[in-house]
Amino acid sequence: MSLIRWNPFKEFDHYFDPSTNRLSDQKMKQLDSTWRPLVDVTEDASEYLIKAELPEVNKEDIKVTTSDGYLSISGERNFEKEDKKLHTMERFYGNFERSFNLPDNVTDDGISAEFEDGLLTVHLKKNETVKPSRNTIEIK
């Protein structure tokens, strides 16, 4: 039995076109097609708060939806082509989507959202939940 040395960068080999040793156009499109905006989720006594960083995204390009116990934030950030030579591109463009489980004490009518200066803020108002009572059951 022989040992094989682990190479952590071997996983990336499939992204490169072996004939040119550059990212292939197809892989480049896959890498640029989705991105995950950064979010903070906080909670206080009255609500949950989701803040998503969406710089250079238009309000009209953002959708906040609920379905089957999930809240989804989706949209698109478009790449604006300019007549300038591009040297480095580290920001992501294209479609994005983030999904979150809705807590049991939140209903659709208690959700609101606002968008200002590239920050999407989603408020999830807590409903009063009936706390289970504690009973002693008589054993017969």
CATH class of the domain at 36-78 and 93-128: Mainly Beta
Give the assembly state of these chains.
single chain
Q: Biggest sheet, strands in spatial order?
A: 3-8-7-6
Low-confidence stretches: 29-33
CATH topology description of the domain at 36-78 and 93-128: Immunoglobulin-like
Helix content: under 10%
**Through-space gap between termini:** 67 Å
Q: Sheet bearing the most strands, described?
A: 4 strands, mixed
Taking all Cα atoms into account, the compactness measure Rg is 23 Å
Overall mean pLDDT: 79
Any guess at the CATH architecture of the domain at 36-78 and 93-128?
Sandwich
Give a quick rundown of the structure:
By secondary structure, this protein is mainly beta. It is built from one helix and ten strands, in the order ββαββββββββ. Residues 29-33 have low confidence and may be disordered.
Describe the structure.
This protein has 140 residues and is mainly beta. It has a domain at 36-78 and 93-128: Immunoglobulin-like, CATH 2.60.40.790. The protein has one helix spanning 25-33, and strands spanning 16-17, 22-23, 34-35, 39-43, 47-53, 62-67, 70-77, 94-101, 111-116, 119-125. The strands form three sheets. A four-stranded mixed β-sheet has the order 3-8-7-6. A four-stranded antiparallel β-sheet has the order 4-5-10-9, with no helix packed on it. Strands 1-2 form a two-stranded antiparallel sheet. A hairpin with a 2-residue loop joins strand 9 and strand 10 (119-125). 9% of the residues are buried. Mean pLDDT is 79; it is low at 29-33.
